[in-house]
Amino acid sequence: MADQVWIGIILISALILFVVDKWRYDFVAMAALFAAYLAGLVPRQEVFSGFGNPAVITVAAVLVISHALWRSGVVDTMASSVKGVGDRVWLQMIVLTGLTTFVSAFISNTGAMAIMIPVALQLSRSGAGHASLMLMPMAFGSLLGGTITMIGTPPNIIISDIRAKHGGEAFGIFDFTPVGLSVAVAGLLLMWLTAHWLVPRSKSRDTSSSPYDVSAYLTELYVPEGAGLISHTLFEFESKIKENFAVVALKRGKQMITAPPRYQRLKAEDVVIVEADTETLQKILDITKFELNAEEEIGTRFLVSDEIKVIEGIVGHDSRLIGRSAADLRLRHRFGVNVLAVAREGQPLKPSLSDVRFKPGDVLLLQGDAELLNDVFNRFGCFPLAQRNIRLGSKRKLLLPLGIFFAAIGVSAAGLVSVPVAFAMAAGVMVLANVLPIRELYEHIDWPIIVMLAATIPLGGALEQSGAADTIAEAALWVSQGAPGVVVLGLLMVVTMLLSNVVNNAAAAVLMAPIGISLAGTLGASQDPFLMAVALGAALPFLTPIGHQSNILVMGPGGYKFADYWRLGLPLSLVMVVVALIMISLQWPMYA
């Protein structure tokens, strides 16, 4: 009994820390694992056993293959075809959500959204607008798509491995398809019919090609004869003011210097374009004796050139920018990148922008060298929203990665090799075939997810071996006393779904699967429907933006608030539970 109490305390503490989100989930999971080891709940030889678990290997391999398909332009080719659907918002939503759902069945949900969000924004700006009407259904569609195959989402991979450990064979790639496809189709139909009324519309991104009034952040300053700091460098100019502002351009006669180097010296009659708030601007004028130059309307003409670009990007769910500011990171000094604007929940934040601490879902407007901007986005875990050149590539380059991918699916579906081996080999073949450069092999593996999975798998085992899972199962049966088995199944799925809205869905699957197996054992029923209920519940967190990376990614571009998600998410969740229970009962009966 003491073991059950200790594992309960450890897991509840971990769940609270997951929700509070002060520390990243991989760190919390490892801390919980070490606590369980010190309490004698996890044997010494099993502490790091999760790192060699087939589910962890499969997730890593799928992430590598997803990036290879993304890099080769396979999905971009499909996305480019969407641009011909016209400017009818309802039709755009149907096509975009349908395509996102299909793609997410085979590559990571986050990768699919990173590709499709810029396409949605492009269609919105060129047509009738209302990007917010499309983005939330697309995010939810990516979650629905993940349920269709075993490789579509980490919970399915985890559940497949857990089944193998409990006396059965691992689920095959398409064993999830009858239930997952039915759920996905029902979810899409519901969203297509109700999104017009249930999805909040934000006008922040619908009325123009940019969510920001760039001119509100920029001011022209004229350098008259006799002004202070003439012949000084821009570095000396910025050091003298000692405030947060940015020099984004320098106009000298007919020459326009965009993002001027910090060693550039000021001359009389220069026009300096700065990004600053009113207090900082007044200080600049007082110290330098520069003059406001309001002869021309300020616009984006000062921001871009052949080499310098302005690109929007979303702060990802595990970005290195989270909790830090541009000043902390010294983006201008280290990378020559200016933060021109930040939008949160669709609304621009005012200067001083360099002190804004970034949050997941923030939309940044960055200016700098195009190649440097790409490096910054990759380095810091952000997703660019700029219109991209579609990487259509040659037919051979498209067919090769697709051939490798479908070969891996074929040999694993035929039972010739296991899924982890098939997909790990496919990732290696893609490197050998130069579909994916070897330097990028590990760059796009979501390492926090991998570490979290490896840490929670032994915790799930401790939950089961301590008897806590049986105790929870007995409590659930007592609550649903006298009810049919399908009610117990529904209760398990609802609890898993609620849990996945506040913690990582992979962690929800690991923790709830032992409880599902215990429920099945207590009822004398097959474990398969209970495992399927856990997989679906963990994969479909529609109620909060923190439930999944896809939900976070659309928060800024869509202008959504935290409370907006349940408006569509709650009815969608209820319908998904009903459809899933019907299909699970038909496909995976509780009693043979």
Automatic annotation (TrEMBL):
It comes from the Bacteria. It is a multi-pass membrane protein. Keywords: Membrane, Repeat, Transmembrane, Transmembrane helix, Transport. Its main location: membrane. The chain crosses the membrane at residues 5-21, 27-43, 50-70, 90-121, 133-159, 179-199, 398-425, 445-463, 475-499, 505-523, 530-548, 568-586. Pfam families: CitMHS, TrkA_C. The gene is sdcS_2. One of its GO terms (molecular function) is monoatomic cation transmembrane transporter activity. Residues 205-290, 297-383 form the RCK C-terminal domain. This is Sodium-dependent dicarboxylate transporter SdcS. It is found in: Membrane. GO terms for biological process: potassium ion transport. It comes from Pseudidiomarina piscicola. One of its GO terms (cellular component) is plasma membrane.
